[in-house]
Design goal:
The complex is a heterodimer of chains A (229) and B (240).
Chain A (H helix, E strand, L loop, with lengths): L19 H5 L1 H4 L21 E9 L10 E5 L23 E5 L6 E7 L12 H9 L16 E7 L7 E7 L3 H6 L9 H4 L3 E8 L2 E9 L9 E2 L1
Parallel strand pairs in A: 1-8, 6-7
Antiparallel strand pairs in A: 1-4, 2-3, 2-5, 5-6, 7-8
Chain B lengths: L2 E4 L28 E2 L4 H4 L30 E10 L9 E5 L25 E5 L5 E7 L4 E3 L5 E3 L2 E6 L8 E7 L17 H5 L2 E4 L10 E4 L2 E3 L2 E3 L10
The chains are: A alpha+beta (229), B mainly beta (240).
């Protein structure tokens, strides 16, 4: 008898198509149906930390802005904790850390308001029995401190017509150069000149908030780094 | 044993980014390889949703946009379970759907197809899975519609499905197709999936047992998200 593994297989992805707004942002599609659309308030009123605005555009391989993208945001609070049972620690009441934005149908511009995230522990928090063991035992290089925490970053996931499976990327901050230099994910990118594609530029202030500009290039010159997470 | 990272996504079974027969993918697909990450807190966590976020009527597309009566079309129930690759149910997760009406027309200001809008049909719904990972919607079966790819391409009848799971790395958007639809093998978007068995996983089955006599037919559609491994040994801890 053949041994068989009884795992199921992940459902295959399909493009979100041109009318993704109907399902996930019906107001943008031109009609109201739900009491409240999800994803409009990322940080909530009680979040600590610096209020910021992030703006950008997604550019295709021809250099044109993509005008039918939907982006989702996933980020930690200012303490570096995620709003999740395994998020590392408590978050403020009303802090979701998740948001959903769409590009403008005419210009392709998108933007959202949130708080700047803090540094996040570099690997997931291990089960306590395991982490106790490793924290007392040096690794093969004799280190007990394994590595630096991750620099402040916002995880992004984008879908659109023509994108067969959602693309994951990360946005880091230009004014966190010291933390970025130690970031284990940025340092995983062996082509150093590609790391800059993940770093949002400071672009002035609006309504008293610093604005960060993040351009995502799907293809070609200065193509953004995408991750298989 | 404690749960840890999610299984590596099987990219050989998922559609690649560049699929030239689906023309829009040509300029919207990265040319460099993705960088693979060992998962950190950024990937093993994800948003959570509760019953405060949505309303009970949100999963009933026959009623949630009704103005003067019920929408026109074939009344169906779409139901199934959200499971992970370990066949464990995924409870409390948000499932969102959107679709065209029975004419193949979307209620979207960018859809100019001449198929008629239905004044009583919006075309979107959402629900949370129960403790067994179970979900259901009531809707009308969407019509096929033409799209500009080759000159005479028609999408099979389909419902778009979005699922979150319990981590950002499980996030998935896909499409549900209907058993027996002859347009399925002709569609360049379906054909972006390289594995015929994987395509079959997106075809909902007619489910007479779940139909409501003299009211609605039913289709069964199970969704599988990435599974999570358990920590057996963990002695190599560098990485991200």
């Amino acid at each position: 008898m053949k041994q068989r593994l009884d795992y199921l297989k992940e459902s295959p992805s399909q493009t979100a198509g041109p009318f993704v707004h109907i399902g996930l942002a019906p107001g943008a599609a031109g009609f109201d149906i739900y009491r409240a659309e999800l994803g409009h308030d990322i940080a909530g009123p009680n979040a600590k930390g610096q209020r910021i605005r992030v703006e950008g555009v997604v550019i295709d391989g021809t250099g044109s802005p993509v005008k039918d993208v939907l982006l989702e945001i996933w980020q930690a609070n200012a303490d570096g904790f995620y709003a999740h049972p395994e998020g590392g620690g408590p978050v403020e009441d009303g802090f979701r850390g998740w948001g959903r934005v769409i590009t403008d149908f005419e210009t392709g511009e998108w933007g959202f308001e949130t708080v700047k995230p803090g540094q996040v522990a570099a690997r997931m928090k291990l089960a306590s029995d395991v982490s106790d063991r490793v924290s007392t035992a040096p690794d093969r290089q004799g280190r007990t401190e394994r590595h630096a925490p991750m620099a402040p970053h916002i995880n992004l996931w984008l879908v659109a017509r023509g994108i067969n499976i959602g693309l994951n990327t990360r946005m880091y901050f230009e004014d966190e150069a010291a933390a970025n230099a130690l970031d284990p994910v940025l340092n995983l990118i062996e082509w150093e000149n590609r790391r800059a594609t993940l770093i949002a530029k400071r672009a002035g202030d609006r309504d008293g908030r610093p604005v960060y500009r993040f351009e995502i290039r799907l293809q070609g010159d200065r193509e953004t780094v995408f991750f298989d997470v | 044993m404690k749960p840890a990272e999610y299984y590596q996504r099987d990219r050989t079974r998922q559609p690649p980014a560049l699929t030239p027969d689906y023309k829009t993918s040509v300029a919207r697909s990265p040319r460099y390889a993705m960088i693979s990450l060992q998962q950190s807190a950024s990937e093993i966590t994800g948003p959570t949703f509760g019953h405060n976020d949505i309303d009970p009527i949100d999963n009933d597309l026959i009623k949630n946009y009704a103005r003067t009566g019920d929408p026109v079309g074939e009344r169906i129930i779409v139901h199934g379970r959200v499971l992970d690759e370990n066949a464990r149910p995924v409870p409390g997760t948000l499932v969102e759907i959107w679709q065209a009406n029975a004419s193949g027309r979307y209620r979207h200001k960018k859809d100019s197809y001449l198929g008629a809008l239905d004044p009583n049909f919006g075309g979107c719904g959402r629900t949370l899975t129960d403790e067994n990972g179970y979900y259901f919607f009531r809707t009308v079966k969407p019509g096929a519609y033409p799209w500009r790819n080759w000159v005479n391409n028609w999408r099979p009848a389909h419902i778009h499905v979005s699922v979150f799971g319990h981590s950002f790395s499980q996030r998935l958007i896909t499409q549900l197709y209907f058993e027996g639809d002859p347009l399925i093998p002709l569609c360049p978007i379906v054909a972006t999936i390289p594995d015929p068995e994987a395509i079959d996983q997106l075809i909902a089955r007619l489910d007479m047992n779940a139909s409501v006599p003299l009211d609605s037919l039913a289709y069964r559609f199970d969704i599988v998200l990435r599974g999570r491994r358990s920590t057996l040994f963990e002695n190599r801890l560098e990485g991200n």
